[in-house]
Structures are given as C-alpha cells and as structure tokens.
Hints:
The chain is an alpha/beta fold. The protein has helices at 9-21, 29-41, 108-127, 149-156, 206-217, 267-282, 307-320, 335-338, 367-389; strands at 46-53, 56-64, 71-77, 98-99, 102-104, 135-141, 165-168, 176-180, 183-191, 234-242, 252-260, 289-297, 300-301, 326-329, 347-349, 364-366.
Amino acid sequence: MKAEVTMDKQNKIDILTHLVQIDSANDHEKKVADYLEKLLTDHGITVKQVETSAGRNNLIAELGEPDATPVFAFAGHMDTVGFGNLDDWAHDPLSAEIHGDRLYGRGSADMKGSLAAMVIAMIDLADSKTKIPGRIRLLATVGEEYGAAGSKQLTEQGEVDDVDGMIIGEPTSGDVVYAHNGSLNYTVTSEGTPVHSSIPEQGVNALTNLVKFVNAEADLFADVKPSKEVGPLVHSITIFNSGDQVNTIPGHAELQGNIRATPEFGNGAVIKRLNMITRGLSSAPGADLSFNVDMSFDPVVTDKEDPLVQLAQTASSKELNREVELKVIHGATDASEYRKAENQFPIVVLGAGDWENAHKMNEYVELSQFLVMDEVYKQIALKDLKELSKK
C-alpha cells in the first residue's frame, strides 16, 4: 500500500507565489530552473538542467525506474512575456497578490500556474512512493514566448524520442485542447535609393515598393479554405517601418507579419506563397524586396478520439466538477517543436487559467482551478501509462 501523502493548499500556493515572483520575462529562466531543481531534488526526484544560452537553462525531471517504459511527459515553459507599461497594472506584476480566487502576476496564467501544478504532481507522486507503470518526465523550457528555443533544443537532442504521450500546461481553464494553428513570423525588406524629396525621380522609394507587397498580401490567401479543425488561416501585417526624415526619399523599409496556418495549408505552403509574391514584385524595375522567416510553429492536431484526449477530458471534468469541453485554440505552443520528434505521440494542452487572459495587463490565475490541476495531471499520467503498459 502506498502512503497517502499530498501537499496542502498553502504549500501549493506558496510554490506558485514564488514562481510568479521570479522575473523570467523573455530571459533569466535559469533562476526558475534553479528554484525548481532544489524543490524537486529535496523530494528525491532526479533533475538535470540543459543550457540554451547564458542564464537560460531548460530543466528535465523524471520519476520511475531508469529506462522503464512507457514514458509520459508534463511540458511547460518558464519564460513569460514582458510587463508592458507598469502604470497599467493594478497589482505589481511580480507581487503574486491574492484577491479572492485570483492570484495576480505576470505569467500566473501563462503558464506558471500549470507549471507549478506539474511540479506539485511530481512531488506528490514521489512523496507517496506511488508505483509508476513506466516513467513520468517533466520538461520545463526556455524561450517559448519567442521562438521556442528550449523545446526545439530538447527535441533535437532526442529528449522526447521515447515519449508516448504529453500534456502541455498552457492556460485552457481546464478544458482540453486537442489542436491549434501554426504561427509564422516573417520580415519583408525593401531596399531603394535615398535622395532629396525634391528630386524623387532620381531615387528609388523603398516605402512605395513595400506598400505593393502590403496590397498584394491582402488577398494572397483568399482561396485557402478554412480548416475543419482550427478554422480559417489568419494573416496580419503588424509592424511597418520606413524613413527617418520627412524631406528624404526612404532608401530602406521593412515590415513584419504573422500568419496562423492550418493543418491543411501549413507553414510550408504559406512560406512558398510569400516567397512567390516577393520574387514577383522584385522582378519589376527598381524593386528590391527580400523575404525572411523569423519563427515557424507548425499546426498541431491530435485526433479527438485518441485515448489520451478522452482520458484528459474525463479526469479534468471529475476534478473541476463540470463537463469540460474539447477545444481548439488559435495560438501556438511548444507542441509544434515536440511534434518534430522522430516518433509521433498524442499531445493535449490543458491547464489552469484563461487563454484570453494570457499576455494581458493584470494577468491572473484562478486558484480554484490551480489547486486541483495537480490531481488532474496525476490521474491522466498514471492512467495513460497503465493502459500503454498493457500493450
């Protein structure tokens, strides 16, 4: 018989509070990794850190007998987006203040709440000496918010090649996300010839040539049919820069755009089209446009009927005392990198906090969701491993 040892409510909140109070906005994840390593090793859990760059370390923790199979992964990121204008915050973004059912702070929803719940689940399993029918691995990564450097590195190093199922702890309010769009960031640069604005005919206006791309891009994906799972392909030009003096024809201009691709019309097809239009415009006299991909997350879909999806829905419904939904989101996650592993395994996105609350001022996580999420994670991992071990 295993001993019933679980962390109490205040201990759980203390872990979340400490995580939110560590500033890991777009950097410094090693501070989070160091805190988690001490916390986990104090409970006898095997931990290692993997450096991505100075001050930015991924963390990998594991429960179960070495080399045991199958393997289930809890995955989350340690970085957050920046704070924005501090005057727009009613509560300091690093304070982790609690008001009613809400703990406020940058990253509380996205996704230190779920990361804390995954750590707590690991600790509870270790302290209760639960027999793991395989292994449970925690992957805590750097840089998810811009480029997913951590999950890319761990995937390339083979850290998920033996994984049989995964939960990514993004904020879903306890609902189960089985699919999401891709996300592709790109830059288009236009080079011209600067001259005095009184003699524009002697120069090449880089801004004017770049505007031609803007106009062409508006209808570039008009023929792409909506995905049956994630809906329409969404594309936006979001940054435009040109010129530094009003009486000079600009010799340089650039823009950046973001595209949410679909499984049916993926990032490769999007890139091909953007390259095509850029080359076509550059073939005109006086035009010199170049295209570059800055970040590329592929769309991810797990079959709604997959046993992991069904198990996650059942477990979350039980603990939250409501019928949770199966959903898609139009953001992107580390799943896009993990899906590039040599083996293919089902992935669900499931965590505490509201997806719509992520990245906003006065970000918060509902404690009522957070406090049960570790139990949700434990149930899913143990039951999935048990079923997989029978095969």
